[in-house]
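Quick start: read one record
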Amino acid sequence: MHPGPFVAAAVALVLGPVCAAPLVAEAPAPADPVVATGRSEASFQQPSLAPGVDYTLPAEDDIKATLDRVRGHFERATPYVLIDTATGEKVTGLGKPLKSVGIDNRHGEYNDWTYSMGVVLAGMLQVSAVTGDERFAAYTLRNFDFIFDHLPYFRAQAKEFGPQKDGYRRLLDMHELDDCGAIGAALVRAYAKRKDPRYREGIDLVAAHIAKKQPRLPDGTLCRPRPQPVSLWIDDAYMSIPFLARMGEMTGEKTFFDDAAQQVTGMSARLFHGDRGLYDHSWFENALPVDPTFYWGRGAGWMLMSMAELLSVMPESHPDREKVLDQYRRAVAGVGAVQGGTGLWHQLLDREDSYLETSASAMFTFAIARGVNRGWLSTAWAPVAQSGWQAIARRVRPDGQIEGICVGTTAAYDAVYYYNRPTDLGAMQGYGATLMAGAEVMTMLRSFDVEKKLNTFHWRVKEKARAEGFTRRGPTPGSPGVRVPREQGQQSPRAPGLPQSRVGRSTVGN
């Protein structure tokens, strides 16, 4: 597919959305600022009541209420208007294109085409699939409709003036994976609900960029020309793999799954440090043989979520499935070992003096809960996701905004940068992951029984599920013990469980 009139001069973008108003940062805190005292299961004889700890079993209604607050925030905050960006006045009629007309980004990127909103829109669809509450899906469809309703105007604007920052520049001038992959994956999921031909046109534009325009290493691994001439960012796992996986599911074409698996293996070979079980944030070809190493939390979260989403729809017969599954398990073991004492994870995963960060915590919680639900992990991992969710839920304010999310973060070279990245209520990178984590923990609560004894929680396969198909190796197709929402893919939870002999062994990574 040729880009035609959509392509203008390439614009270098930093990681993270660009809004009309600067973010007002929260200073990073060394400890969880949300609570001063802990809470523990009432029946425990020796409760865990340390500050910041919520060591209780979440209730499904409480999770839904938390997700409702997040949805309510987005419904209230999304303006769905065009403005004159020079004056701030609302534009009601669209005639001849004017350079100053744009979407209203003054208070956030809520109806913009950005990677972080893509995760939000995908998360809304997942919550609808799990809860049956169509208000979440309606938000996603309304946002995409707003984009495509106004795209003809902004195409004409771009033809005359070049793509404008507030005129869907990332859609009209796809320059890197940030511009298309994550929101493209959400668009594929939306297209499964509504076969709008405009959605399919957008999907095809994303597919063309990833296939033909994004730089790659000789082995096919997607890369970037910045900040060093040849760079890998672990962020690009989520900017590509979920889209490729959803395209494979939608089209039935094996090549999409092949490409998604190549991104897992190629990125892991360069960025996964097997001795630590953690992902480095970036890899610079010109820095070899000694490359700076920083185990940035959200970076690892992007990859772990990506592998979970790929495994959710990848055919069991695919020749690379076992490699992806093995790498997923190795990454889970690595992040599980560095979870903090309140259930959250640190900004730099291996440095306990770095602050506790919300978006990475939500990503890990989602990916681990998904693994338990689909049988890729033993139920021994369920308490990790349980405690992760309880800690995240305490950071969702009554108004639905979420505290402790690190702002957009580039691939950097020094600890000072990572330690001091601020958090911000307007940083969208953690909102979608929070929605996904909550939905997946709700599914986990429905899928298993929980025994409370010895001052902790023991997740068990439901007796009916055990009798009707759950084996030592995990749930079998059709097992009533695991509910897989249809929107999340047609694959049954049929991957094998986690035999102990497999831990710490992989065909990828270093």
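Residues 1-24, 27-34, 470-510 have pLDDT under 50 and may be disordered.
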